[in-house]
Design brief:
The chain has 577 residues and is of the alpha/beta class. It has 4 domains: 4-179, Pyruvate-ferredoxin oxidoreductase, PFOR, domain III (Pyruvate-ferredoxin Oxidoreductase, domain 3); 198-371, Thiamin diphosphate (ThDP)-binding fold, Pyr/PP domains (Rossmann fold, 3-Layer(aba) Sandwich); 385-455, no CATH class; 463-574, Rossmann fold. The chain is built from 22 helices and 22 strands. Strands 6-5-4-1-3-2-14-7 form an 8-stranded mixed beta sheet, sandwiched between helices. A 7-stranded mixed beta sheet has the order 9-8-10-11-13-12-20, with helices on both faces. It has a 5-stranded mixed beta sheet with strand order 17-19-18-21-22, with helices on both faces. Strand 4, helix 2 (76-82) and strand 5 form a beta-alpha-beta unit. Helix 4 crosses helix 7. It is globular.
Length: 577
């Protein structure tokens, strides 16, 4: 068994929990470890109880565990709520004077974060730096990488602030080294390998940049806001225009306008905001305008749990928009998948002139993973639009010209002297409104029936991980990837088990490349795992293929599965074999 520790930082919003979590994650990554982190926070700016959980190992990680080795308690609630999660050697560090309580139990190590911050740094705002230093002291790690990070983070604030923070970190570190006599954690530094620590939300934004996205419009809404923030920070560097619209109706229509005008465009939102975008989605369907929509799921209905996680919007996306037109839904399970699927979304949206969704959830958006790197080799970039000289050579341009593939030439308006006409009414090949039945039939066949088989051919089969002759098969989509993978690793030591994970969920992958239905039918127990109450993916699979899962595991409390929780749920079904 390799090294595997979990650290939880708990406190109120505004206490800097994320600052500590981010610093730990970055130092662990720079030290050559694998990291996985997830957050749990309330929908408020101050107060409440939030936590940031970070797991560190010398082996790759894809999920969180229940047991905590170090709890950094910045409020009383952290002790009340999480003390029972400690391992037998687990420790709680806290500041007795701030919390106004003293705990004598063997698990507790009192560290005067604020007092040390005042003594060493001259400002109690550095209490978090003291606490972070203390964690490295407890783990027996060196402090050099954290001191480098401090210098890097505060370089614009001047030498004095850098020095004060370094002294605060040193004070916490030394105190923990001297006083945590029961700390038995052993974090050995192996070879330091350059890895990156990346979250789900940044990966979608990175995928958009790598795909040549030039326009992003959105209204801020958890959990999609991070895409807008990241792209806005790269506006000058990559020539992207980021527009914070007045609402989601404007956001999708602006993106459609930019796409019509000839650039790759994207919008992002959550369920409540997407409800406003639905008319625009149908407009994209009729005008055959390419668009990529990032849709972040959180528990509904209405405002629901604004900062929690759920997979409750799949069927909404499948059927959204009035009328019938093709759409594609990708649901990444890891930040790496998010990067490549966003790239694929831009390619397919433009190639087939359709809307494509990146469907994710709060859990994937906020979790951070370590990867060696993202290989840029497989990225696709092909400009499918008619521009300049190619466009000029067209004798008579028809925006909706009939073709065997159903794909018409997509030209850039104002380029090369031709007129580009689009209309939201049913139209003829040139884009002018029509009323006759024959034209309607031909256009529906062009837009829908001719494109669909080609689109289906682009959809990759689900990933099979584990025993290829498995008795028990866990099936899921989107963010359940990591936890299912670790569960298969754990249970695979003693039983025949595999995971079937769908990241390209709609239309369902063709069975010709991999007959996953036959694979599921052979299993003694097929379990569908979803973060919703009604089993939406299972229902789509049954409607499309006739296959029905023998058992389902649904979680809809707004929190993600930990490895132990999912194992417990699976054990409850094993008696059915």
């Amino acid at each position: 068994m390799g090294m595997d520790y979990s650290i939880k930082i708990g406190g109120e919003a505004g206490q800097g929990i994320q600052t500590i979590g981010d610093a730990l994650g970055r130092v662990f990554t720079r030290s050559g470890y694998h990291v996985f982190s997830h957050q749990d926070y309330e929908s408020r700016i101050r107060g409440g109880h939030n936590f940031y959980q970070i797991r560190i190992s010398d082996q790759p990680l894809t999920a969180s565990r229940n047991k905590i080795d170090i709890l950094v308690a910045l409020d009383q609630e952290s002790i009340t709520s999480h003390e029972h999660e400690l391992t037998s050697n687990g420790r709680i560090i806290y500041d007795a004077s701030t919390l106004k309580l003293k705990n004598e139990g063997p698990a507790f190590l009192e560290i005067a974060f604020e007092k040390l911050a005042m003594e060493q740094g001259g400002d109690k705002i550095m209490a978090n730096t003291v606490a972070t230093g203390a964690v490295f002291g407890m783990l027996g790690m060196g402090l050099d990488i954290f001191l480098e990070l401090i210098a890097d983070t505060f370089k614009n604030k001047g030498d004095q602030i850098v020095l004060a923070n370094k002294k605060a970190a040193q004070a916490g570190y030394e105190y923990a080294r001297q006083h945590c006599d029961k700390c038995v954690f052993a974090v050995a530094i192996d070879e330091i390998k350059q890895r990156m620590l990346v979250g789900g939300i940044e990966s979608i934004a990175l995928g958009a940049l790598a795909s040549g996205c030039k326009f992003y419009s959105a209204y801020p809404m958890t959990p999609s806001t991070g895409i807008m923030n990241y792209l806005a920070s790269k506006e000058e560097e990559f020539g992207v225009i980021v527009e914070q619209a007045e609402d989601e109706i404007a956001a999708i229509n602006m993106a459609l306008g930019a796409s019509y005008a000839g650039v790759r465009a994207m919008t992002g939102t959550s369920g409540g905001g997407f409800a406003l975008m639905v008319e625009g989605l149908s407009l994209a369907g009729m005008t055959e305008t390419p668009i990529v929509i990032a849709m972040g799921q959180r528990p509904g209905p209405a405002t629901g749990f604004p900062t929690r996680t759920e997979q409750g919007d799949l069927e909404f996306l499948v059927s959204a928009g009035h009328g019938e037109f093709p759409r594609v839904i990708f649901a990444p399970g890891t930040p790496q998948q998010a990067f490549y699927l966003t790239n694929k979304a831009f390619d397919i949206a433009e190639k087939y002139q359709i809307p494509v969704f990146i469907l994710f959830d709060t859990y994937l958006a906020d979790s951070q993973w370590t990867f060696d790197s993202f290989d840029l080799g497989p990225l696709r970039y092909h400009d499918y639009r008619l521009r300049g000289d190619t466009f000029k050579k067209q004798h008579h341009y028809k925006r909706y010209a009939f073709s065997d593939s159903g794909i018409s030439p997509l030209a850039v308006p104002g380029d090369a002297g031709h007129v580009v006409v689009v209309d939201s009414d049913e139209h003829d090949e040139e884009g002018h409104p029509v009323e006759d039945a024959a034209a309607r039939i031909r256009m529906v066949e062009k837009r829908l029936f001719k494109k669909l088989p080609l689109i289906k051919g682009e959809i990759a089969p689900p990933e099979l991980y584990g025993d290829h002759e498995a008795h028990v098969i866990l099936t899921g989509w989107g963010s359940t990837y990591g936890v299912m993978k670790e569960v298969v690793d754990e249970l695979g030591k003693t039983m025949s088990i595999a995971m079937l994970h769908f990241s390209e969920v709609y239309p369902l992958p063709d069975l010709a490349r991999f007959d996953y239905v036959a694979f599921l039918q052979k299993a003694k127990l097929s379990l569908c795992i979803e973060h919703n109450a009604t089993g939406q993916f299972g229902r789509i699979l049954r409607a499309e293929t006739g296959f029905m899962f023998k058992a389902r595991i649904h979680k809809y409390d707004g929190r993600p599965f930990t490895v132990e929780e999912l194992i417990g749920e699976i054990h409850g079904h094993l008696g059915n074999i």
